[in-house]
Amino acid sequence: MSVGERLAPVFGRGIIAAIFLLAALNKMQNWEATATFIAAHGLPYRYVLLALALLVELVCGFGVLIGFRTRSAALILFAYTLIVTYLIHDFWFAEASARALQAELFTKNMGLAGGLLILIGQGAGAWSIDSWRGE
Q: How far is it, in rounded angstroms, from Cα 37 to Cα 2?
């Protein structure tokens, strides 16, 4: 296996993980605004949902980053991404002025979900804790 074949999964995991880790950081820095955003979408228990979102994004995002239990972390993030995308980026209900943006965000999240599916199927790659542990 070439160096490039070993590096590509490392950088790919880093990019995917950064999306979730930066989202978690944003939620921590804007706790009340994020809770209000959740409530504005008609979701109950906004603080519970926000805490769960932070937990998923931080724990699973870090797992993907370092390649630890990558398939499990990616599976959880995949389910989380699908649920959040359906509930938040529901472009089919959006007003005309917001429809294009919400459709774009929906589509980008589906691309992210595709990347997570690749991690679920292929694993973390040679340079990961999973590989060093023999998984």
A: 46
- In this structure, how many other beta carbons lie within 10 angstroms of the beta carbon of residue 2? 7
Pairwise CA distance, residues 19 & 12, whole Å: 11
How far is residue 129's CA from residue 63's CA, in Å, rounded to a whole number?
A: 9
Helix (H, G, I), strand (E, B) or coil at 68: coil
pLDDT score recorded for residue 7:
94
Q: Give the pair of three-digit tokens for residue 35.
A: 């809770």
Angle in degrees, CA 123, 127, 129, rounded to 5: 70
Domain edges within the chain:
3-132
Q: What is the pTM of this model?
A: 0.94
Residue with tokens 């880790």: 21
The stretches of the chain forming alpha helices (DSSP H) are 3-29, 31-40, 46-55, 61-66, 70-88, 96-122, 129-132
The SS3 assignment for 67 reads: coil
For 2-60, what is each residue's pLDDT tens digit? 888 899 999 999 999 999 999 999 999 999 999 999 999 999 999 999 999 999 999 99
Q: What is the pLDDT of residue 10?
A: 96
